[in-house]
Fold:
Amino acid sequence: MYQRVGAIAVKKDLTNIRLLCETVGNPQDQFRSVHIAGTNGKGSSAHMLAAILQVAGYKTGLYTSPHLKNFTERIKINGLEIPESEVARIVSGNKEVLGQIKPSFFEMSVAMAFEYFAKQHVDIAIVETGLGGRLDSTNILKPEVALITNISPDHTQMLGNTITEIAKEKGGIIKWNTPVVISESDIQTADVFNRIATEKNASITFADTIYTWDDTGTRLFDNHNKQIVCLSKSNYLPEYQLKNIQGVLAVTELLCKKHYHIDEDAVALGLRDFQKLTHFKGRWQVIYKKPLTICDTGHNIAGINEVIKEINKLQYRKLHIVWGMVDDKDAVKICSLLPKHASYYFCKPDIPRGMPVERLHSAAKKAGLKGSIIKNVDRAITEAIRQAKSDDLIFIGGSTFVVAEIKDI
Structure:
């Protein structure tokens, strides 16, 4: 399982997933889909789209990864997780072929999601890639629309050391004659995406050239039609979600052109309540009110920069940060981004990939951070709460797997 042990678990090949899906009747061809890749924002975008389509009356599947608490979080229909009994049925029913093919954990999860969506006759499924795109197990789909959120350095040991190399891997989800939306245009990646789209005869839309927010982040303009398309955003949405909304709206517009019936009310309600409708967890989520305690799963440089922007907007007496990482990240580089005035509680997520807390603490010292070593995530959170006053701010993050260990999430 990649989330636990890292790159050794990844199979860069589509052979297994094709064999697995063939044994159950190629379920990926039995439902319509939207396919989403990107470095950051793909999970949020997937949940937003699923919520909009759900409100519009469509039976909507949603496949995302990793899960925080339970495996069943990965596979949902209209916000409801796949029943454990259904997971058991699919695994036991395919035990022999699983033994023959020996798929990775992710390959098995994807095949399970596709079989479940087909069996439940979903109208459409929103499917998020795991790593990359070109060789990701989800990339046997033939989607209605593809969405690529953004590109920044992450998982470079598998996807490439440059932005253009990573973009080429993510751009691998672009299919022949299938429209693709890019949420955030970038001079380093635009040529890559344009070239792939031209080769595949795929129309390409750069969402941030169509939709732009005003300076307050409360009004969104459609630059093509010269009109306001969204009058307000939800108070709890951090600024980085505004970029995701642009891509989501562009995908929604393309689906409408394909005769999906999605009115303005469905879009507004879906965006406003997407966390509640899809049970989305871990992105700028308030855990406690006093002291204000927030978690976020941002774990690479681009994601952490966005988190720091949000922290800087808040008022507090003192900042406490519970921080842990996985061992394939550049700890010194990431720690150098973090606020130096905070009190830190360094910990290790309870997985083999977790960065040893002594190594994290050493990197943090080099970056000018001060704090204590508390190896267990739960104990680190408890200590931060014990030390904090009611008007302080506690932030918990650094890794999805730190957030996953929060008891009250």
Summary: The two ends are 23 Å apart (CA to CA).
